[in-house]
Amino acid sequence: MEDVKIYRVIGQMMRDARTFRGMTLDQIANKMNVTIKTIQRYELGERKITIGTLVEIIEILGLDYSSFMNEVYKRSQGDKNEP
Length: 83
Hints:
This protein is mainly α.
């Protein structure tokens, strides 16, 4: 179940970064040669994302991988103590 949470956090952060940069799902999908639905499923946490794919998306978004993953870790740990 922990994996699902991490994929959701990653997806939310990807979506936030994409929209902040004014990029569309179509733009990301075209750069990666995948369908819009694939990117959408990553953003919703519905599809597991490989490290290679994640690195590619992070680079397209102009983000730093280490900083991104540190933030993923923080956010995924954030509500562990909540009921």
